[in-house]
Hints:
This is Rieske (2Fe-2S) protein. The chain is of the alpha+beta class. It has two domains: 1-77, Single Sheet (N-terminal domain of TfIIb), CATH 2.20.25.680; 90-283, Naphthalene 1,2-dioxygenase Alpha Subunit, Chain A, domain 1. 18% of the residues lie in helices and 39% in strands. The protein has five helices and 15 strands. The strands form three sheets. It has a seven-stranded antiparallel sheet. A six-stranded antiparallel sheet has the order 1-6-5-4-3-2, with no helix packed on it. A two-stranded parallel ribbon has the order 14-15. The longest helix is centred in the last third of the chain and has 20 residues, at 222-241. It is globular, with a radius of gyration of 19 Å.
Amino acid sequence: MNFDQQLFDDWHPVAALEDILPDRRFHTCLLGRVISYSRKGAEVTAQWDDDGTERPMSAKEQYGALWVSFSSNPRDLFEVPEFAEPDRRVVSAGSTRVNTSGLRAVENFLDMAHFPFVHTDILGAEPHTDVAPYKVKYDETVDEIIATECKFPQPRGSATATDALDMDYIYRVTRPYVAILYKTCPPDPSRWDVLCLFIQPVDEEWCIAHTLMCYVDDVNSDEQLRHFQQTIFGQDLMILVNQVPRRLPLTAKTENPVRADVLATAYRKWIRDGGLTYGAIRD
């Protein structure tokens, strides 16, 4: 299916569940359309404004977020089984409106090369600036981009880290506007912490980034976890809002990739091959 039609018919995040207060109606924008949602009792409903006519939307609560779709029969949402594990903490790091294409926000999330320069002394530090080779593949069975064997030396790779360590990463891109990071879990190295970037494309040059954490952590408070991740995202903001053009170019000649950009290159190719135009520059 063409990505643009798929984008309209698919599920999109519009809020962290913990932010939806009962008996209040919230308004926002999705794909250039005004939508609203509200919670009454255990049920959340959503609507969109179709040239003055209010039409119902499909709505579901999953992975700590409210998802809506313009379609009455959207496809199944991707699977993140870690959210069903009872000992995990699911915490929202907030929803941030950013003046850039959601595709730009996802690509920045996939970029390890900026760690030492943007997140100095947290996710990286000089002179350790090289990105070690890693593997990227396209999984056609679920239509996802997956990067494995990603490693980076980090002074403080997570809120639970007490010492510098080489962090292991796995990246999943499950939708053009959704990226999921699995990273080393310092309290239990046999498991992964899961950090989700769920992007709400407000329009082609504005987005809202909903960041959800699914962590194994019985030490930090929700506020401590939230503060750590908001610090990281705050450092990324200046990069995101100053990228020109705001939409994501899909041709290599526009922005030349380097060896560290293998994942970003695969992401752009996936979008280009899928025919996506929304939030992108194809030529």
